[in-house]
Amino acid sequence: MTSHPTDDFLTIIFGSGQPFEDVAAAHQRALGERCLVETPYYAQCIAAFASDREARGVS
Asked: Which of 7, 11, 18, 51 has the fewest CB atoms within 10 Å of its CB?
């Protein structure tokens, strides 16, 4: 996943005095953790969808 900061977000970051690199690193960690949790569930949903279509004879 790729994300891009909006101008408003950058204004808030720079206004708070936080270095952009620190915020970007924290965002990357949070996104990585979320992906680790959600990816298996997403894969299960795709598999269930495919199995259902196969059971109904839909290609």
From this structure: 7
Q: What SS3 state is found at 20?
A: helix
The structure tokens listed for 17 are 């005095």
Name 27's Cβ contacts closer than 8 Å, sequence gap at least 6: 3
- Give the C-alpha separation, 50 to 34, whole Å: 24
- Which DSSP helix (H) or strand (E) runs through 2? none
pLDDT per position as a tens digit, 20-48: 999 999 999 999 999 999 999 999 999 99
CB atoms closer than 10 angstroms to residue 21: 8
Query: pTM for this one?
Result: 0.59
